[in-house]
Amino acid sequence: MSNDEIKYFSDFDKIGWNNIICAMEGNVHLFSWSKINYYMNFDGMDNKSFIYFFEKKPVSAVILAIKKENKKKIICLGNKNSFCPAPLFSAFKNESIRKKFYFKTFELIKNILLSNEISEYIFYKHPILNENNEKDTFEVNLSSKNLFFYLNIANIYEVVNYLIIELFKEETVLWDNLSFDRKKNIKKNSKKNINTEIYTSLSEKKKIDEIFELFQNEHLKASGFKTRSDNTWLQMKLNLLANEADLFILKNNKNILSYLFCDRFNKICSSWSQVNVKEYEEEYSPRHTLEWEAIKYYKKINQKYYDIGPRYFNNNIIKYSNKELSISEFKEKFGSNYFPGGIFRLSFKS
């Protein structure tokens, strides 16, 4: 009888899945039960995510999402064809055993993908890692540990700089790191009759429902078309009710100026979805204030990192759209160093 066993995402409940991944090393914040459910609620997603066990002990966790696009199956998350995060692994004391299970896990991935007629696996490694320390407890850190280990099996597709705010720094330091125009607009807004509301899992359910409907409608109005399914919006609300997300609202008297939805898991938070009410955008530049309020709030409740997102630059290999470059430049002005991550491409044959 084999000592190997695969259990798929559907075999777990939320507590069971999250308890296992939080006792592994890697980008745990990308693997939360609620976040996976969000991505799997996009149209056409087939969830093949699994946890690999050896002798009944969890060895690795893998997010695999298969999407059919133009009659071709690909590995991606959501509707923007985002890459899946690199697998998580148990905190092995012995490096040779670690490598053994690395290769075993990728063999399992290969078998699943080839059986679905997919011959390429593109995945990324984020710089915020859950790590086992000398006291045999887990903590999240910014780290390049084993970032390029995957050169053993895959080619580098891209090296990416991530913008991450270290919330354990003094608030005065975080403020000083903001760009001149961010500080200017935040100070200007502080003299106006505006306030921030924060909706959390402790907020009244009826009020959350009302605000989410306004948020979704405003997002549709700003986009001009439906960017994602109603089920994904429902999952965002469920994530908030599960205490893994928060919704920030900036108001002027009774008028809502801006919405900012952020996720939160394992001491890491990040902006997820945002929209300004167009008629107030030029006067207030509301996101400048709202993002700063989110940063202060997450510092106050002892979160460790605020992930703003990637900073894109054109290079000899990759060319980004003007929109991607503009958005990443906008995010950079909230103040952060660059922390490297990697995107890897693994091709295989049957």
Nutshell version of this structure?
It contains 10 helices and 18 strands.
What's the SSE blueprint?
Layout: E1 4-8, H1 14-21, H2 33-40, E2 45-47, E3 50-54, E4 57-62, E5 65-69, E6 72-75, E7 84-85, E8 88-89, H3 95-115, E9 120-125, E10 128-132, E11 138-142, E12 155-166, H4 171-177, H5 180-190, E13 194-199, H6 205-223, H7 230-241, E14 245-252, E15 255-265, E16 268-276, H8 278-284, H9 286-300, E17 305-311, H10 322-332, E18 337-347
Parallel strand pairs: 7-9, 16-17
Antiparallel strand pairs: 1-3, 2-5, 3-4, 4-8, 5-6, 9-18, 10-11, 12-17, 12-18, 13-14, 14-15, 15-16
Helix pairs in contact: 2-7, 5-9
Which class do the helix and strand fractions yield?
alpha+beta
Into how many domains do the coordinates divide? 2
Give the overall average pLDDT: 91
Give the helix tally. Answer: 10
Largest sheet: 9 strands, mixed
Task: Give a written overview of the molecule.
It is a single chain. With 350 residues, the protein is α+β, with helices and mostly antiparallel strands. The protein is built from 10 helices and 18 strands. Helix 2 (33-40) runs antiparallel to helix 7 and helix 5 (180-190) crosses helix 9 (286-300). The longest helix is centred in the N-terminal third of the chain and has 21 residues, at 95-115. The mean pLDDT is 91.
Task: Name the descriptors.
globular, four-stranded antiparallel beta sheet, alpha+beta, 10 helices, 350 residues, 2 domains, single chain, Aminopeptidase, nine-stranded mixed beta sheet
